[in-house]
Write a structure and sequence with these properties.
Keywords: FAD, Flavoprotein, Oxidoreductase. By secondary structure, the protein is of the alpha+beta class. It has two domains: 8-115, Butyryl-CoA Dehydrogenase, subunit A, domain 2, CATH 2.40.110; 122-257, Butyryl-CoA Dehydrogenase, subunit A, domain 3, CATH 1.20.140. It has helices at residues 65-68, 119-155, 167-195, 201-226, 237-244, 254-257, 259-269, 288-300, and strands spanning 8-11, 27-31, 34-45, 52-58, 69-75, 81-83, 97-108, 112-113, 157-158, 161-162.
Length: 318
């Protein structure tokens, strides 16, 4: 695992299970001191260059996802691993993305991540780290789109003046700048919370949601500023436009990553969910109830509409 260059790939997504991780079909069965792995993973980034994979597999079909899945570290040169072709995607084409098939792949017991049955929770909590990383890359693309559009607007002239002097263009650039800075600060908040040893689930989800949306919107506005030139491959913004979309899909679709939407969905499905559930206490203390809800959903493999706020364990005073 330490052989240079070290490249890892994260194997969770499957042909029939993207955002719905609980429905993965890859199986691992214990056989002596090894686990035998069978299944197919899809859209796996770095698959063609990886030294090893993290693979999430179902190990106990009698248990819900929160207690029936296990994470494994699988060496990429293990017999039984087959790589699909490198996918040609709309954007970010330098990314080596492939399908990976595991057929009777033997994995040593010591390659279990954590303990058997805890893989789903490990995979979900990994988002606290990966979402800020994805969000930071999205902010970088948004910033690049803003800079390219601003530079072009300063030099391109219509009606005798640079187009940046036209109010419609200036307003687009202003919106791009505002959203980029807002997303950047939220990414910093998510990263700072993690570095400070605090739980950052809330801010990681918010940063991913806003930054990915900003990347797409900024790239789109940059094409608008460039006009017809923005549709041409000789100019940089058409690539930014293509590259931006994946940020809304990385680490769970952006419309499913926002914790506010999770709360609102439960409120819609369960009338006993009070509006004030998470508004008590100053500052970040109000997030304690939300974190408890996340943990409750993970522990009980809850589907929307089947949970009451009264079922969520809370400490006295919260």
């Amino acid at each position: 695992m330490t052989e240079e260059p070290l490249v890892a790939a994260y194997g969770v997504t499957e042909p029939g299970a993207g955002s719905d991780v609980a429905n993965i079909s890859t199986r691992a069965v214990k056989n002596g001191d090894k686990w035998v792995l069978n299944g197919t993973k899809m859209w796996i980034t770095n698959a063609g260059h990886a030294n090893w994979f993290f693979v999430l597999a179902r190990t106990d079909s009698s248990q819900p996802a929160s207690r029936g899945m296990t994470g494994f570290v699988v060496e990429a040169n293990s017999p039984g691993i087959t790589l699909g072709k490198k996918e040609i995607n709309m954007g970010q084409r330098c990314s080596d993305t492939r399908m990976v098939t595991f057929e009777d792949v033997q994995v040593p017991e010591e390659h279990v991540v954590g303990v058997p049955g805890e893989g789903f929770k490990i995979a979900m909590k990994a988002f606290d780290i990966t979402r800020p990383l994805v969000a930071s890359a999205a902010v970088g693309l948004a910033q690049r789109a803003l800079e390219e559009a601003t530079q072009y607007a300063q030099t391109r002239k219509t009606m005798g003046v640079p187009i940046i002097q036209h109010q419609a263009v200036a307003f687009m650039l202003a919106d791009m700048a505002i959203q980029t800075e807002a997303a950047r600060v939220l990414v910093w908040k998510a990263a700072w919370s993690k570095d400070a040893g605090q739980r950052n689930t809330f801010y990681a989800s918010m940063a991913k949601t806003l930054a990915s949306r900003t990347a797409v919107e900024n790239a789109n506005l940059a094409v608008q500023v460039f006009g017809g030139a923005g549709f041409n491959t000789e100019y940089p913004v058409e690539k930014l436009f293509r590259d931006s979309k994946i940020f809304e899909l990385y680490e769970v679709h952006f419309k499913r990553a926002d914790p506010f939407r999770l709360v609102e969905a439960i409120k819609d499905a369960d009338s006993s969910f009070p509006d004030s559930a998470f508004s008590q206490g100053p500052g970040d203390e109000r997030l304690e109830g939300l974190f408890k809800l996340f943990d409750f959903l993970l522990d009980h493999d809850v589907r929307m509409g089947s949970v009451s706020i009264n079922d969520v364990p809370v400490r006295n005073g919260n």
